[in-house]
Amino acid sequence: MKLFPILGGIHPEYRKELASEKAIVALPMPVALYIPLQQHIGAPAEVLVNEGDLVKKGQMIARSGGAVSSPQHAATSGRIKAVTDVTAPHPSGLPQTTIILEPDGKDEWGDLPEPITDPFTADPHAIHERVAQSGIVGMGGAAFPSAVKLNLGTQKKLEILLLNGAECEPYLTCDDRVMREYPDEIIDGARIMAHALGTARVVIAIEQNKPQAISIMTKAASAFPDVEVVGVPVQYPMGSERHLVQAITGRETPARKLTADLGVVVHNVATARAVHHAVRFGRPLVARVVTVSGGAIREPNNVMTPIGARIADLIEFCGGFSARPESIVNGGPMMGQPLASLDAPVVKGTSGILALTAEEINDRPTSACIRCGNCVTVCPCGLSPLDMAAFIRKDNLDVAAKLGVMDCFSCGSCSWVCPSHIPLVHYFNYAKGVLNDLERESRKNERIKSLAEVRIIRIEKAAEAKRAALAARKPASDAAPPSTGGEAKAATEEKANT
Amino acid sequence: MSATSIKKSGPFAHGYNTVQKTMFLVLLALAPATAFNLYLFGWPAILLFAITISACVAIEAGCLALAGKPVKATLADCSAILTGWLLAMSLPPWAPWWVGVLAAVFAVALAKHAFGGIGQNVFNPAMVGRTVMLISFPVSMTIWVAPHPLFSAGSPGLFEAFAITFGGHMPDTMSAASALGYIKTELSRGIAVTQSMGQLPDLMDMALGKRAGSLGETSALLILAGGLFLMFKRIISWHIPVSMMGSLFLIAALFHAIDPARFTSGTFHLLSGATFLGAFFIATDYVTSPVSKLGQIVFGIGVGLLTWSIRNFAGYPEGVAFAVLLMNSLAPIIDQYTRPRAFGRSRKGEPLPLEKKP
Fold first, then answer.
1. A316, A321, A322, A326: CA torsion to nearest 10
2. How confident is the model at residue B1 (pLDDT cuts 50, 70, 90)?
């Protein structure tokens, strides 16, 4: 298959060998699971259980909270200990509403929805429904509800389901292991998704630093002429949705559009496996593979972890720390988030937990920019990081916005390459936050303004109507019906409201 | 709230490149050409080289202390050494000590620290030092010597060198003209290029560096080797050297073809003066050149064309330093007009139109 070049990018030290040869092992059930209501992009789920309820594995314990939302399920059987605030897996370390489940040790499945016997003849809606009900979200890290993305086929004509097995983040090997150990499940899930989306082709893209995964997946896909496995160049951030689509199709997704507008929908390989489980067995998403790695972890591993297990439990299972970790990272080292607390739970989007030593992070004091331009060369989005950062430093965010800071997806290539160790991504994240707030604020203000304007018009019209009514009444007798004024007022109000 | 007051966000991995490492590699790349030229011009050149670098480092330390910036940590970035090194390479090899010191003051204090220190200067410090000296002291700055390799007959010993550098005893017999200067003088006397060329070292000697010229600029081949090393190490890219030398060669060759009696050949322009040093080590200075690749090509072409124009039409025989400084002043505006196209957007910044699917 002909591949197309992508812009910029870097070649960090991948250090995948720390965990890549470790077969997936299951985490022993911890003493408690902490299942947050918000593990995805969109509205939080709504609690369905009360303290003291007994639940079975796979039972829905919180339902979808809106059009873009996802339900949560019990990852094992047990008793609901509490519904309370617990530290979220977020850099802020702020708490969020979480269901605490005390496992009973039996790990009994509850009543699951019936398997869809022949998904390839089933109505696509039935598959969307099943995926939504199963709480499946994008497992590459973004955690966008998968059913919403599977629905794109009803709005747009789609050609390709692109399965993202690039796993371009250093250290992470969870997708690699899943591809090597469960290739048939992934391919079955992908074909079901392709049917739901109405795409004729499935392309599975895997970075070439995973030769075993490529060969195993190629073999597993050989039975299906519509499924193609492609090795893509090792070039961070190849796994970025838009860049992967460009590498495979040569087409560039316009700003503010979706890859679906080009006829391509991208899903993670692990998501495809979750779809397979949901459709073939009725099982919701209650566990995922998490890579636990980094120089400060004694025994790096790929761990099948029930959703809600504390990160501390996971690290303990991997032998604890062998050195003082400088940072604990949720996700990959390039785009992952710093973790404020080990008490936070593993959620559906947790692809890795990394305990990194200072040596691995290689942070140094920031020095002055020498305008080497490396950040411009490596930026996969064609931006000028040094210029944007200079304006953001002076809090001149308007110019930074004009230079495209909102097009930056914080891949971290510029920060990685900077010889002066300027925390460029940090500047951009700050600017994006403030600009988003300003945008929200201005939208709010505009709405208030338009409401206020309408109100002024309404009051004026009412006053005028009153005057008119008064004037009309004066020459006539006092016996005129009082309701006319009220009617006129109501009529003008209605006008003003439209 | 400032962006730096909270714990940093990712990435939690970092490349191993640093400013110090970059500067060090540039120094390493300069070493062979410098060593050859120090050998070629002997003890006085060695003294001037040492004086200029020491002066730059001392002035940098003084400026940092005055500005209240960390002195030791900033000196460790080697940028003052690099400035001093390049400055020394652009001075006449037997210039007296005060030329090096004064040039260092202009380069480091005026061109660099008055603008805010490393990364903030608009103009290339070494070239500011050189050109200010050239304009202020045209005589001292244009005394060239023919190569006198160390330990060869006629080469001054250490003692004589002290007399030359600190006593100002320039032996008259030693002086020689630079190729560019000679051609220019002869032209002004009405002697055609075709005739005067015969008096110059042949092109092979010029490429090897056996010619009169600034302290470190004469060996095109060794400078080229250093430049290729920097490209291999990805410290510089091909864009500025190729566009600068290419444009200089093309315009020179074109005019040479039109009027060979008035204009020297493209090859001559490439191999004389500071063309190689300028193309690989001076125009490529990060701080004062554009950051985008397209901008670098525009910049390089500008330097090449200006160099040729100054050499041919201005009062000075050599134009690389002036050309670089002129283009330095344009670098910010070149940057503004040559920003790369953002992903998914047109050059104007509008979202790309949705193409019809093939």
1. 160
2. very low
Give the 3-state secondary structure of residue A297.
Answer: strand
A6, A356, A426, A429: best to mutate for the B interface, most B CBs within 10 A: A426
> 3-class SS at B333?
helix
Q: Which residues of B touch A91 (CB under 8 A)?
A: 7, 9
Q: How far is A297 from chain B (nearest CA, A)?
A: 15
Q: Is the bond into A237 cis (omega within 30 degrees of 0)?
A: yes
The full DSSP string for B119-169 is TT-SS-HHHHHHHHHHHH-TTGGG-EE----TTSTT---HHHHHHHHHH--
Ordered by start, the domain boundaries in chain A are: 120-289, 366-498
B291 touches chain A (CB under 8 A): yes
List the A72-73 sheet strands across, edge first: A46-47, A60-63, A72-73
What is chain A's mean pLDDT, rounded? 92
Chain A hits for B119, Cβ within 8 Å? 368-371, 420
Q: Do A379 and B344 touch (CB under 8 A)?
A: no
Would an 8 Å CB–CB cutoff place B76 in contact with chain A?
no
Sequence ranges of the domains in chain B: 19-337
Query: Using CB atoms within 10 A of its CB, is residue A211 exposed (0-12), middle (13-18) or buried (19+)?
Result: exposed
Nearest by CB: B292 against A373, A417, A419: A373
Nearest to A240 by CA among A412, A87, A118, A99: A412
CATH superfamily of A120-289: NADH-ubiquinone oxidoreductase 51kDa subunit (3.40.50.11540)
Inter-chain contact A257–B344, Cβ cutoff 8 Å?
yes
Counting residues of chain A whose pLDDT is more than 70, the rounded percentage is 95
Q: What is the pLDDT of residues A172-227, one digit of tens each?
A: 999 999 999 999 999 999 999 999 999 999 999 999 999 999 999 999 999 999 99
Residue B5's pLDDT band (cuts 50, 70, 90):
very low
Nearest CB to A376; choose among B14, B340, B352: B340
In the prediction, which pLDDT does B191 show? 85
Residues 10-39 in B contacting A (C-alpha not used; CB under 8 Å): 10-19, 21-22
Q: What are the tens digits of pLDDT across the range A423-475? A: 999 999 999 999 999 999 999 999 999 999 999 999 999 999 999 988 888 76
Number of CB pairs, chain A paired with chain B, less than 8 A apart: 180
Closest CA to A19 of A325, A318, A324, A292: A292
B315/A contact by beta carbon, under 8 A: no
Alpha helix ranges (H) inside A198-262: 211-221, 241-249
Contact in structure between A392 and A428 (CB atoms under 8 Å): yes
